[in-house]
Amino acid sequence: MAVVATHQFAQCITCHVWSPDQTMVAFCPNNNEVHIYKLIQDKWERAHVLQKHDQLISAIDWSSRTNKIVTASHDRNSYVWNQEGAEWLPTLVILRLNRAALCVKWSSAENKFAVGSGAKTVCVCYYEKDNDWWVSKLIRKKHSSSVTSVAWHPDNILLATTSTDGKCRIFSTFIKGVDTRDSGTSIPDSKFGEQIVQLDLSSTWAFGVKWSPSGNTLAYTGQSSMVYFVDDIGPSPVAQSVAFRDLPLRDVLFISERMVVAVGYDCNPMVFTADERGIWSFVRFLDERKLAPSGSKYGSQFTEAFGKFYGQSKQMGSDTVDPTRARGGAHENCITCILPLRSEGVTVVKRFSTSGLDGRIVVWELDSD
């Protein structure tokens, strides 16, 4: 059974992210601002509004170690926000883009971040202490269309990208003076911007790339209602394509090495798992309106703490797909973002959040059995 709780923060949410202690959530309400809400006595109250961009903010990320927020916008700019006292102060990042910035992610070590753009370019940004500013090195002439998503490998060197040219690519982002060769990367002698592999699995736009916790598996989605899983990244990767008959997906999240939750235009998170042979398949929707068969392994429930400040609406679950079922439930419009909510010292994701074009943020918790 799936129990879902939601909060209506805005009419539409472009993207969202959590503070390191998960007591604050930042999101873009489909404009040029970032709204930060803080949990105070079981109620969400708006604490800050970040105003610096001139156009729509397309992506945001909040570093867990350094407590810095990075934003990317259609105005072709990116800012790093530092909290000083009660204020968040922006620092402009020199991106050198002539098209919109579409996605942004901090690296695993949080000493770099990557910005994908409509200029067919990826900007890998790092801080120059001597000059007290953020600069970028550009990966050019590799993508033939807009870069829709970026994902950092746990080694802090490899970067995966997806593009509207239908391809997923993996690059080295080694920067001398910022990275070290003993980072544990499987490509120890790679240079900045070197393309490690290009995956041509999708014939349509590609979105939502993510690495598994170990970095051994990569997953991304295609506009043709397909999910792609890739193992053994290198000259001879092992790839699988999983087709489904529902609407396309926009983002994916590894719950564990063998479980993925994906979200998109169907307004309902979808669970994919791998069997003992490593074969991936669709399992179920998380927010179904039908009773799940007895013995269903995966379910969803909302924690009591979050339930106090989110309005709860219970929905039933099912492991079978009914083409006549009502779509949605917790979400009523496209889900564009899914993020993990990790507990300290726990590698397997038990809780995660989703946000969408309906202006809602939903927090889910998977059953432990």
TrEMBL record:
Q: Which GO terms describe its molecular function?
A: actin filament binding
Cell compartment(s), UniProt: Cytoplasm, Cytoskeleton
Quote a single Gene Ontology cellular component term.
Answer: Arp2/3 protein complex
Q: What is its main location?
A: cytoplasm
The WD repeats lie at: 50-82, 140-172
Q: Which SUPFAM superfamilies match?
A: WD40 repeat-like
Q: Which domain of life is it from?
A: Eukaryota
| One of the GO biological process terms | Arp2/3 complex-mediated actin nucleation
Give one Pfam family, short name only: WD40
Primary role: Functions as a component of the Arp2/3 complex which is involved in regulation of actin polymerization and together with an activating nucleation-promoting factor (NPF) mediates the formation of branched actin networks. Arp2/3 complex plays a critical role in the control of cell morphogenesis via the modulation of cell polarity development. Functions as component of the Arp2/3 complex which is involved in regulation of actin polymerization and together with an activating nucleation-promoting factor (NPF) mediates the formation of branched actin networks.
Q: Which family does it belong to?
A: Belongs to the WD repeat ARPC1 family.
Q: Please state what the protein is called.
A: Actin-related protein 2/3 complex subunit
Source organism of the structure? Spirodela intermedia (Intermediate duckweed)
